[in-house]
Amino acid sequence: MALIMNKDSAILQGAFLQAEKLCLPSSLSSLPKADWSRVGRPILLALQEICGRNEPDSQPNLQALTWKKRIVCVVWLKLLSREAKEDVEKAWRENPFFSLQNSFPEVNHAVLLELVKSTAAAPIFARFLLHLPQDRIAMELGRLTEHVRSDPAGEEDVRFFLEVWWELWKVREELKSQTEETIEAMFANQFARLSSDSPHTAKRLKLDSAEMTASSVNTDILHVLFNALKDMMDMVASTDVCFQSLSVSLDALYTSFLITQEVVLPITEKLDILCKTIGCRGEIETLSAELIRDAQKDLSASLSPSRFQPSTMKLSEALKIITGLAQFWKDKGLLVVSDPSTPCFSAVRLQRSIQRVLTALDEAPEAAAETDALRDLLKSLDLPADENAPDIQAQVTTVIIAHRLQDYHSFAELFAGKASWAHSEFWVHCLDENQAAFRQHRTLLRLSSTLMSLLHAENSDISRCRKLMKTAADIFSALSLEDKNQTLAAMLGLSSKGFFKQPVPSAVTEGFQQELNMAFNCIIQGGGGASAAVSQGNLTTAVSLVARVAFQNPEAAIKSCCHSAVFNKGAFSLMAKILQQLPGLKAQLGGKNEGEPKDDKVNAASGRNLLCRCLQDTIRSKSMSASEKQQLLKFLGLLMTPDVMNEEKKESFLLPQEVVNTFVLPNLSAVGDDKIDTEFSLQLLHAALSVEAATSPHWVLSCSPFPLLFVLAQLYNQAYRCWEEPAERAVHLRSMDTKELLVSVLTTLGQLVGAEIEAAPTSWSRALFWLYNKTEELDWTVRFHLRPVWGEHFKNEVPSSLLEVCDLPEQDWSGLDLPEYGQGTGLLAWMECCSLSDSLRSTMLSCLSLDRHRPDHVSMFSKGLLVALTQSLPWCSVSQWERLLGVLRELITSARLSVPFSLEYVDFLPLLDLRQFSCELRLSVLLLRVLQLLCGSSCADWLSSDGWAHVCRLYAHAVRDMMNCVKAKLPLHSSSLECPKAPDSLELNPSVKPAKRDHNPVEHAEDSPQESEDAHMKDEPAAAPSQEVLFVLSQLFCHIQHIQVMMPGGQSEPLFLCSLEILSHYEAVMAAFPDSCSHAESDDARHFFTTITDNLSNQHMKAVLHQKITQLVSSAA
């Protein structure tokens, strides 16, 4: 960056030429110090013209500062260039200051130093010094010392020397941020260039031989400075300069010898020192940023390790010099304050320096002798007492914050926490105008505490409080998401109600309520509906809105989230995403909280999540519909799922154990209460158990797992017979799906607890035996669901009648004498065991004691099984029924179950090969016989209307299962065969995964003694012709129509839908295989189906089926 000549440069050039003329017959290159007052006047006037005069209250003139730097730099480089005998041809190309520098006459060091002194440019001179190597700094300080001591030498020269010394200490980290374009950096580059041009040039930049000898010894900066001050002690004639000299030397000693890292003072102490400093200078009325910045630099320099560490000088030597100086000036009477009532700045500063040094010297025993002498001397000084800081703390803090001075964040924290200042208007104004300075976590908390004290005061200013709340919320809104969460967590630590911990003016409450309502209205209308696919931008906005109101009142914000999630259709997903972004709101609350009801049954000793408490309040405040319960269930499920967006910390907003302890345990322990929704509690427990958990120990151990298992076992025992009238205070499950959910939860929980028992069996033995003994009073099937918990500790206990039909090993099985399982009930118990689990089903099939080679045994077994199946069917869940269907298929294919197939629905048997369909046909006939028996007069009063509906559902499920097996045997899987499945009238519970359906009729054939002929024929490669498929479908249709006619109470909708599916598939087969039947056969089929359907009592169903049959036949023809 070359320096361009302009008008100001010309003015300076003329001033230096005029000064050169005033030196005649001599020149500026040999100017003595004494002549500067006469010769230097034109130069100073020119600088004054260029820089102008600064008003006392004005900001520093940047132009003046730049020109001061420029003139000092140019004059100094002029000296260096002459010393180095720089080549002009090279200089004009590489020196950016060449034009101005070359226009000046030659000068000497006296001109440079007097120019610095006269223009108060000691800070600039010190900054240039710091860009030089340390040996060069020592040499330049030596020159400065000689110049100060040269005639005429006075006290002002000592002041100048001390100012340069202290400026070297004050300039610190700022140097590291300088760029190559600064004047200081360009000066350093030019010095380096002049030094490196050639070895001879480098030597010429040194002093002459005499100077070189002296400087080689005095490269230790501290040695140079302390000895220079020692040599100047007789030049001091005033108390103020004495105090200044001692304080500078003591601070230099302290920062170079006695500390190794910065001494950090509390911010209140810093403020006190700054206020005393400004007060002593008498500049309270003209409080400015520059004044405070300079005071901060002084304080920082006296508390931070110096960049100049001693190399040759010892601590004892420095102490000796300071002691000598103090003694000399004391003997001359210079260390006495003239007016103790008005302490001067230098005295106050010296007092602090003395305190720091004496405290530190107590830990430096290597200089004990010198330390004692100095301590005695310093303590004898008659310094004024430490006065209290003037009452300008608030103003000083405000200036520091407004101008972002050093430590302004810490001062902002102090400012925010000063409740005594908060009543003044300037405090509110400063806060509002400098919000960026308060965007720190700790600062905002201090501000919040102050605001709370204002809100809860007796005579609070409502308008000011509302303005402050808005300002605090604005500051919070500008924080990063991480800082917001830290602040929210801390606010919860203060109070779950935030600013509203105690009663506040109604106007403030109403204003916040309006903001809260507006925030959630914007969220719901802008993307919280069921059809909204929330974009990242919308989510970010929603998170900011919720965080803002949560900062003011966490509990109110979370309650609004809960209410929206439950009662606004589809909003649960967005609310969950918002809360997952605000983990600061999941802090635990210990014990009772503000506004919490005294009779709250849920009060976990370890603390509870605020969200759980707010959800409880939401649930209590309004009854929920079924859809709203599902929204709540999904909402909790999302919150229990770890946040997939956070790869580093996969934490969920809500822990599963919190949900279980808050919503499940209290409800399940209060079974029998009509207000308790047992099914919903089970759904919540199932959702919690479905969350992926960390390794052992599992979180379920914190939820009283053994009592919970027993309560679930009690529920199962009470609800085992769903269609019977429940006993007093027993739980009546609304559907068989709930029973299946209960079994799923019981099994999953048992597996989790069993894994923990297996890992540490001795730790759980007592609890295990307690649970086993408690379940003795329950139904015998309960213990089988708890099999994962027992492990190998206990035998399997079954009714004794089961052992009569099943060969079970005595070492693992034992019989129970149960009154309800008397003679002839063995097959009933056997079928109940088969339905409990897949593994138990396999065991029952493999251990069944039946000689299939004896027809009489098989016949007797088949009759008994028909009765047992009739008794078991109504009480089966879907998964249990699927297991029993598998058992029936296995028994049929292994020839252990005899089911004669009668031709009651055909006039003649066509010439068809039905061997591949023998299992389906026999199974259909068996189920027909079961339903005939169940619908007969002897069993007519067994079931309620809900029970009959469930039986229809199970039978329809079995028919579809058989129809799927028939579909699988078609020779061609044409797309035309894929007909839409009619929906079932009752859906399975979505929270329970149904057992895997296995349509293989020989799933457990390996457990049988031998396979039947039918089983072998399944492996034959021949495909079933379409005529056989149509025949089987017609038989299934006839069976289902027969049963639909028998079914009491009109509970036949599932059967009606299943009939439509059979007809649709029948039509698809006919369309795919036109040769499967002739026109006459199709007419016979239409007449036959219509005749069968005419028996239905429901006219609507009959009409629909007739229409379908008509379409079926006409399309086939």
UniProtKB/TrEMBL annotation:
GO terms for biological process: rRNA processing; spliceosomal snRNP assembly. InterPro entries: GEMIN4. GO terms for cellular component: SMN complex. Residues 995-1021 have a biased composition (Basic and acidic residues). It comes from the Eukaryota. Residues 983-1021 are annotated as: Disordered. This is Gem (nuclear organelle) associated protein 4.
